[in-house]
Amino acid sequence: MRFLVIGAGNIGSLYAAKLAQSGQEVTVLARGARLEQIRRHG
């Protein structure tokens, strides 16, 4: 199954990680400062 997680804060990142660990296809939507952090550090 494919999931879109809107928001890459603490809770969104936690849910995205748990879904990915269970074998799901996950896309995370981020913006602003958090997006820049993800781009720099993964």
If you had to describe this structure to a student in words, what would you say it looks like?
With 42 residues, the protein is an alpha+beta fold. It has one domain. The protein is 52% helix and 24% strand. It contains two helices and two strands. The protein has helices at 10-21, 32-41, and strands at residues 2-6, 25-29. Strands 1-2 form a two-stranded parallel ribbon.
Kindly summarize this structure in a few lines:
The protein is of the alpha+beta class. Helix content is 52%, strand content 24%.
Descriptors for this entry?
42 residues, alpha+beta, two-stranded parallel ribbon
Number of domains: 1
Radius of gyration: 10 Å
Helix-and-strand structural type: alpha+beta
Helical residues, percent: 40-55%
What fraction strand? 15-25%
Shape summary: elongated
- Count up the helices: 2
Q: Spell the H/E element sequence.
A: EHEH
Describe the strand arrangement of the main beta sheet, using strand numbers: 1-2
Main sheet overview:
2 strands, parallel
Terminal residue distance: 23 Å
Give the low-confidence spans. none
The beta-strand count equals: 2
- Mean pLDDT reading: 96
Write the layout of secondary structure elements.
Elements: E1 2-6, H1 10-21, E2 25-29, H2 32-41
Parallel strand pairs: 1-2
